[in-house]
């Protein structure tokens, strides 16, 4: 089996338009959640979110590209440029033939659906733009990345709600680890912050109207975010041979299915995924220094997750640091695991653990070290990143310091 | 604006060239409009004139709508506007 390292990272999210801006915000415990700005927002009962501000797509893409790129594709291409530029890889010849792109998204082109339903239903139009289908399809972002960077290997999109990015990165990891390809572009993106996207979430009654406070006893729900996180996963010797900067090593992953309930999380399912990732990485639970929690800020997730971590790590659960950066960037749904992997990289490479902000009251059902409110300096050898999706689909990644 | 000038404007806009560079004899291929660009042009024409263009992207040559040159497209649009706005 090959060893797999990360040689490029890129992002855009409510905390910043680059990895360095995002990590700076996480170090400072800055909140990117604020008032939502889009058409008809006054008809929503939820009016906050981790919205990407100051992103001028027209300055990034030409008119023909704009006709084909939904906002989730725009975010993906923007983040992919940062990641692939950092990796220094040029996809030509045999590398191009083998390298592909596997991305996660839950909703794909949600605002394209929204805009065009509005046009035909509300405005009574009988004609929509010819590119509605290629613009909204869930694989649009992956396909445009493949075209932009000449990635001709295995390429597809994974859609498992809030675990989409972790499932996608797990696929890319497996492909590089098995020797199938020397490199893969992976990660995920989401852009549901439009009237229809938020209205749908509102219906579930799990959204907070004021803040995302994971693990805090007074937490009252999740807050949606948007953006993308993209990475270059590369076979270690391939990366070393060309002198690439290595951000972290990916050492394992596991997936599990609760097979129980369409929305309620299961402790057993989550614990099996955490233990599975530890076993796949061939480490002991005691080696885990940091866990980037799924930590949505809902009553159900946070207590179930803490309980699952306690089961999987045993007594070591009392020593591990576990934080939810969703308190800062919101829940990016299908893109969330990708942006959250950045917090793992920061913990491993920079020795800084991102905090859980908005933490106000201890909850006896979440009695772990949740790194409340302020980032912490710590030497972390191994980090896990949890994602537990609606539908009971779980995926956990394990990373090691290089 | 008459139909001819509006059609030329739409085609030029799609090809990202000046309207003055579009001649009536030009084919869409010469102007640099590919199949996706053609579908987008037809959409823009339908929007501009509020008409339905009988165009099937599966077999453009076999459509009843002639796209063999700018002149043919303009003639076709003039006919459709006359029929559908009668």
UniProtKB/TrEMBL annotation, chain A:
Please indicate which superkingdom the organism of origin belongs to. Answer: Bacteria
Q: Which UniProt keywords apply?
A: Cell inner membrane, Cell membrane, Membrane, Nodulation, Transferase, Transmembrane, Transmembrane helix
- InterPro entries membership: Beta-ketoacyl_synthase, Ketoacyl_synth_AS, Ketoacyl_synth_C, Ketoacyl_synth_N, PKS_Beta-ketoAc_synthase_dom, Thiolase-like
Q: Name one GO biological process term.
A: fatty acid biosynthetic process
Which Pfam families does this chain map to? ketoacyl-synt (PF00109), Ketoacyl-synt_C (PF02801)
| Subcellular location per the Swiss-Prot or TrEMBL entry | Cell inner membrane
PROSITE patterns named in the record: KS3_1, KS3_2
Name any one GO molecular function.
Answer: 3-oxoacyl-[acyl-carrier-protein] synthase activity
Q: Which residues form the Ketosynthase family 3 (KS3) domain?
A: 1-401
What family does the entry list? Belongs to the thiolase-like superfamily. Beta-ketoacyl-ACP synthases family.
PANTHER family in UniProt:
3-OXOACYL-[ACYL-CARRIER-PROTEIN] SYNTHASE (PTHR11712:SF352), POLYKETIDE SYNTHASE-RELATED (PTHR11712)
* Function (record text): Proposed to synthesize NOD factor fatty acyl chain. Involved in the synthesis of a highly unsaturated fatty acid moiety, which forms part of a lipo-oligosaccharide that is responsible for host specificity.
Name it: Nodulation protein E
Source species of the chain: Pseudooceanicola batsensis (strain ATCC BAA-863 / DSM 15984 / KCTC 12145 / HTCC2597)
From TrEMBL, chain B:
Q: Does the keyword Acetylation apply?
A: no
Q: Which residues form the Carrier domain?
A: 1-81
Keyword Cell membrane listed? The answer is: no
Q: Which Pfam families match?
A: PP-binding
Classification via InterPro entries: ACP-like_sf, PP-bd_ACP, Ppantetheine_attach_site
Alphabetized UniProt keyword annotations: Phosphopantetheine, Phosphoprotein
Q: What is this protein called?
A: Acyl carrier protein, putative
Species of origin reads Pseudooceanicola batsensis (strain ATCC BAA-863 / DSM 15984 / KCTC 12145 / HTCC2597) (Oceanicola batsensis)
Upper classification of the source organism reads: Bacteria, Pseudomonadati, Pseudomonadota, Alphaproteobacteria, Rhodobacterales
